[in-house]
Structure formats: structure tokens, C-alpha cells
Amino acid sequence: MPKDLRGADLFDRAPIPILRKDWSGVKSALAQIRASGVGDVVAHLATRPDVIEKLRTYHRFVDANRAAIRLLGAESKEHFFAVARQLLPANVASNIKVLEAFERGETTMQGERTLRTFDGRTVPIIWRGVILDEDAQDILFYAFDVSEQRRAQDALRAAQAELAHASRGSLLGELSASIAHEVKQPLAAIKIFSDAARRWLRADPPKTQEMANAINQIAQNATRAADVVDRIRAFSRKAQSDPAIVDGAALAHGALLLVEREAREHGVEHRLDAAPGAPKIRGDLVGLQQVLVNLLLNGIQAMAEAGSRPRRLAVSVAPNADLRRLEFRVRDSGPGIPAENRERIFAPFFSTKPNGMGMGLPSSTSMAESFSSRTPNLKGPVSCSRFRSREAWLWRPWGRSTGPKHLYDLVATPFDAIAC
Amino acid sequence: MSVSATIAIIEDDDSVRAAIVSLVRSLGFVATSFASAEAFFGSATLGRTDCIVTDVQMPGMSGLELQSHLAAQGDRTPVIFITAFPEERVRRQAIAAGAIGFLAKPFDGDAMSACIERALKASGLSASS
To answer: Which residue does chain A place closest to B23, by CA atoms?
Structure first.
């Protein structure tokens, strides 16, 4: 016969860190705030960290089990109680989760935070809490150490960033001839204008108007060359850029500029349709641009290789019907993807190009997926975007009246949408 | 005093085209300019052109195609090629077809000047006066 299970044992010997706390002081303070006429207490508190700071002093540590003592790096229960109050303040986000549960009359809540342990480590945890009584005298907090998962996620993210960087490098390699051309043209103009200026100066009398014109042109062309270099440099940066608020139309325009020369060389007309006032999105500018450049280049090369006529490339940027997502569409007038390749093109190392590495679409996909990773963030809604091939047609001939309207969508949520 | 020779400049890059126009004018010639070979042939200025300066690589009709198009029409206007990416194969082909010069961008003003002089001499015109 197994022994009777006793509550104290269940608590103390549970292999999950548990903290037992008394929040009754906080709960009654909250009731007072509400009584003073504040409508939405939680929203009010979210703007008043000072009040949260004060509320926090009303809660009390009641107990900690062995696993909790161990997780926190305390030497003993006594040690834990001696220093817990100074060392364990939760972050505001976690506090608010509890206050929200009070306000909504819920008995469970959860969140994520980073613990600073007594011996100086930081441990990312997911915590869950259960409120056991009406007055909140008894709340149990369970902590799950997610260091391992976090490390794996970080490693995955780093690997994805490496892959993205490598495939940006290979994209730039494919574009190198046209980039060189784009730099060389303004340099040639500068050289020729300066020779001309010297001759205008030597004329008798010197032609100052012509000289001034040549000198202005020299300055403009120097700026043009520097702009090209800046664009390339921004694109080839190694570090993943921090998410920024991005104007979708400007982003698409920048991507088109990068392939402009390549398009011209192959006689490809291109156009950008951007809905005026389309919502801005939050995301990794370089990553998003890379996905677009990759799709644009694929389109240009596919049309050139197939000898398609006419050669057209269109990028459109528009919010979708519910205004919660911004859709980037890249379409071309090439031959389309044969049915047997429609799934394979997303597999690594598959390429239909003679010198293709087969990394463009896989890395675009993984990048687009990484845009959509959600991290809890109370400061504002998180960006999220999806990259999908709605139908298996990637390159669909223009003017065909049947079949899917668009093939390749990069979908990103406007940064001001409430949630993804 | 005779009328200045007219040089047609065919180049798709706006800045480079403007630069060559300025240079050619500073040498004392009259310059006409076109963004493509098609635009040049469409302009009916061919008969009034003493020398053609053309880019090799252009969207649409290339410089070499322009040259053979002229030859097919029996036109003997001298042609000078300019290119950002000189390739020996292209250079040989151009020279074999009678090109007066083949200059890599950025070229020297003096080199262009010498080429134009040679072109005009070849077609029986002297320089600007």
C-alpha cells in the first residue's frame, strides 16, 4: 500500500519550483483604487509603474519548496526568506498578469520572465499561478526553467541569421555585374564631366556657365555612386537588424532599386503598385528586403531564361481585406513553375537555374517564418508576418484569366494591429 | 569657315550621356543625343550626323547591332564605341566591322578627342573649323 500523500510533502518535494505567496494586501489595495472611481484598473496601472511598485510591497512570501530554493540558488529556506524581498521583484509585466486575474475574477494566470538568482545567474522561466482563495491569501506560483529551450531557440535564430547572411551574399554575387555597372556609370560621368570642365575653363574666354553645370553634375554623380554603395552595404550587413517600423512601399521600392539594373539588362519592365496610406509594419528591414530581392531576381531570371515576351515584373503592396496584414505580391510574366516542381522549389539545394545554389527560397521561407515568431511584449504588439505560396504557382504568366490571381505573398502584420 | 561637325551620342545612362554631350561640345562640336539606338534611328538625324558615339550595352538594340544596321543600309558614318565593361571579343568584332575607336569608360577627354578627329578625317571632314 502506498503511503498517504500529505499536502506538505506534495508541496515540498514536488520536482517543480513552487512559491507560495499572500497577495491579499495587494487585492484590497486594488479594491480601494477601484472604489476611488478608476474604471479600468489594469489599464490605469499599466501607465503607473510607481503605483505597481507600491502595490508590490503589500505581498508576502509564505513558503518556497525545495525545488524553488534550488532554482533560486538560495542556501536554505531561511536564507531564501532573508533575501527574497530584495531579490525577487517580478517585472511589471508579470505583476500585471496577476492583477488582471484579480480584476477578471480568474483563478489562474501565466507569464514569462527572467529570474535573477541569489547566486547571480539569470534564468528564463515560464510561470503559472493559481489563486486558491477569495482573498488571495494563498497563491501558488509554479516556475518552469526554459533555459534549454531558449538556448536552442537562440542557436536556431543565430543559424537562421547566418543562413540569411550567406544567401544575401549569394544574391549580391548574382547581382555583382549590375552593381559594378551601377557604380561605374556615375564614376564615368564624373571623369568625363571633369575633363569637359577643364576644357570649358581653358576656352577663351572661359565658359563659366558650362563649367558650373559640369561641376554640379559631378557633385550629383558622386552622391549617386555613394547611394549605390550605401544601399549595398546596408543590404550586406551581417547582424540582423532590430525590428523597425517599416514603410512597405519604401521597402519594395528599395528592393526594386537593387535589381533595377538587372531588370533593365534583361529588358524587364517593372512597376510598383503601392496602396496610398498602407499601414506600416514592424520587422527586420534587411530581411524583408532580401525576401523581395530574391523573388524579384527569380522572376527576372526565369523570364530571361525562358525568353518570355513581354517581360513584366510587378510588385504590389496592399493591406488585405481585414486591414490586419500587409501583403507584398511579386508577379512576373514568365512561364510559371511546372507542376512537378511546385513543392520542390522550397526544398534546400533544389534549383532550376544552371548555377543556382538552391538556397534562395528556403532561406526566404525560414526568414519569413522567423518574422512571425512571437515573443511576449507588453510594450506593443509584436510583428508577425507569414510567407506563403497560396497556390503552387510562383511565376504565373500574365494575362491568363484563370487560376490564382497571385502566387507569392509575403504577408506582414501592421505594427499597430492589436495582435497577430 | 565651315559648319561644326555634328556628333550623335547614344547612351542609355542619363548622366553619362549628359557628360559626353558636355565633353563633345567643349571640343567644339555640335552634339545630339539619344537614350537608345531605336530613338536615334527614329529621329531622322542620321543624314546630318558626321560621327556616332555609342554605348555597347543598351537595353533594346545594342551598339554592335546599331553598327550592322548602319552597314546594312549602306551608311558609312564612322562609329566610336564606349563601354563600361570592355570585352576583347566585342572589341575585335567592332573594329573588324570598321569601328574607329573602342573606349572603356571612364575614358580620357583627349582619347575621345583623338578618336573623333580620326573619325572625321576618315570621312573626309576635318575638325571643327
So the answer is: A196
**B91 shares contact with chain A (CB less than 8 Å):** no
Chain A hits for B61, Cβ within 8 Å: none
As averages over each run of 10 residues, the pLDDT of chain A (420 residues) reads 74 92 90 85 81 83 92 88 74 82 90 86 91 93 92 82 78 83 92 96 94 96 92 76 73 88 86 78 74 82 82 79 67 71 65 67 62 32 28 30 34 34
How far does the CA of residue A311 sit from the closest CA of chain B (Å)? 13
- Bridge partners (DSSP) of residue A145 are A125
Phi-psi region of A349 (alpha: psi -120 to 50; beta: other; left: phi over 0): left
To which residue does cell 507569392 refer? A408
For cell 495587494, the residue is A26
DSSP annotation of A1: -
**With contacts defined as CB-CB under 8 Å, which chain B residues touch A203?**
26
d(CA A319, CA A316): 10
Residue ranges of E strands in A164-311: 244-246, 269-274, 281-283
Contacts of range B95-99, beta carbons closer than 8 Å, 24 or more positions apart: B97/B64, B97/B67, B97/B68, B97/B71, B98/B67, B98/B71, B99/B67
CA angle A248, A254, A259 (to 5 degrees): 130
Q: Compare CB distances from A199 to B13, B26, B105 and report the shortest one's residue.
A: B26
